Amino acid sequence: MHSDYLERILNARVYDVAQETPLEFAPNLSARLNNQLLLKREDMQSVFSFKLRGAYNKMAQLPPEQLAVGVIAASAGNHAQGVALGASRLGTRAIIVMPVTTPQVKVDAVRSRGGEVVLHGETFDDAYGYARQLEAEKGLTFIHPFDDPDVIAGQGTIGMEILRQYQKPIHAIFVAIGGGGLIAGIAAYVKRLRPEIKIIGVEPVDANAMYQSLHAGERVRLSQVGLFADGVAVRQVGEETFRVCQEYLDDVILVGTDDTCAAIKDVFEDTRSILEPAGALAIAGAKAYVEREQIQDETLVAVACGANMNFDRLRFVAERAELGERREAIFAVTIPEEPGSLRKFCDTMGTRNLTEFNYRIADRQVAHIFVGMQIQNRADAVQMVETFEAHGFETVDLTDDELTKLHLRHMVGGHSPLAHHELLYRFEFPERPGALMKFVNSMSRNWNISLFHYRNNGSDYGRIVVGMQVPPAEMDEWQKFLDTLGYRYWDENDNPAYQLFLG
């Protein structure tokens, strides 16, 4: 079944549809990692992914009578586009079975490249089963997304290009793993010619079929997979890809969602391109490896393997990137509910940049503040906890808490029976260090803050909403405060949302 991969890769037919992609130096990332990081830019292919290499090579090797009947594939993503494009180039029919849950943008992309889309089932497994049924019924040829020597050889041309493009020593090549076709092809080529180069796979912690299989010594089937990096959300790796990986892989590194989001941001800052989560895995893995091994002045290659990103996911990616970079920490801090304690708390934070500040009066004795701040590294966060505790503020570090990051940060608040004479105002101020503290410090000592919400959104202006308990007799003084503050403001006391949920 698997003749010599070196020969297969050298003879692979991929360049009718694929281009030789650049191997680009990533200056910012390299400087931060103290190593030279090169990005293999497979996101620059016409279908924004490496997948067309393997798909096309498989189809180009088919005998003419099989091509005349047509091909079939099951895929919700990049493989589907590769098969559709390759089939139209070879003048054959391509049926792509996709789960009914596939985003419309991907369905449209396959149709625009000449593929016939059949929507079937909820999951990839359902679509796969139906595709195999249609294959038998119609006499079509099934194009597997990864578990096929011709597909593996097509992806292996990436390894061939890397060694041709960079002939000096390479410490390691990092490759995302889904079903294993990409890394099997690259490893089979590189290990034959340059066995000293480490081949390191990267998987999400919640979709780690190859990692588990290599540890078990046999293919493991996952009961469920995380879908954030949908391009690698595979329950079981291929038979042939597993065999090749057992022989050639040096390591598999697991990375979390936040690390992947941080890697998407890193690549954007170096290239102005936006990778999809699966496309950024290799970069996240390279960063984790450097941190673990403490290496420096080495050359590392990461395969940026895809850029089919749904635009609406960018908000989530941007929010989680700071956490993945260990540049934001989130704390719950308890302070006494008394005049002056908020100011004391703000003094404790010093000149640090706040990313978030949430508070709602709820108790006569204590106030619970939800605060996010920029940090340099995890040690910085630990030191911050110690500082708060030293000032008598009980503190819980919530940086790694999923419930907090996904939901609670948006839910802090509610009606409060203690919020007498509450006024609600929105303010806009120039987003610069110290502006938030200036605001807090300019308020009368007699007024109590009953509600506070601020979130740094990366724009030039910071936006906060404040509930202030101002006795009716002091309304003139409050107006004077608003007029001299110098920030834009909006009176939100009659806002129906405030009345319903907070007032």
Summarize this entry quickly.
With 503 residues, the chain is α/β, with parallel strands linked by helices. 41% of the residues lie in helices and 21% in strands.
SSE layout and pairing:
Layout: H1 5-10, E1 23-25, H2 27-33, E2 36-41, H3 51-60, H4 64-69, E3 71-74, H5 78-90, E4 94-98, H6 104-112, E5 116-119, H7 124-138, E6 141-142, H8 149-165, E7 172-176, H9 181-193, E8 198-204, H10 209-216, H11 239-248, E9 251-255, H12 257-271, H13 277-293, E10 299-304, H14 314-324, E11 328-336, H15 341-349, E12 354-360, E13 366-374, H16 378-390, E14 394-397, H17 402-406, E15 422-430, H18 435-441, E16 448-455, E17 461-469, H19 475-485, E18 488-491, H20 496-501
Helix pairs in contact: 3-5, 3-8, 5-6, 8-9, 9-11, 12-13, 12-14
Describe the structure.
The protein is α/β, with parallel strands linked by helices. The chain has 3 domains: about 220 residues, 3-Layer(aba) Sandwich (Rossmann fold), CATH 3.40.50.1100; about 90 residues, Rossmann fold, CATH 3.40.50; about 180 residues, 3-Layer(aba) Sandwich (Biosynthetic Threonine Deaminase, domain 3), CATH 3.40.1020.10. About 40% of the residues lie in helices and about 20% in strands. The chain has 20 helices and 18 strands. The strands form 3 sheets. An 8-stranded antiparallel beta sheet has the order 14-11-13-12-16-17-15-18. Strands 1-2-10-7-8-9 form a 6-stranded mixed beta sheet, with helices on both faces. α3 runs parallel beside α5 and α12 crosses α13. The chain is elongated. The mean pLDDT is about 90.
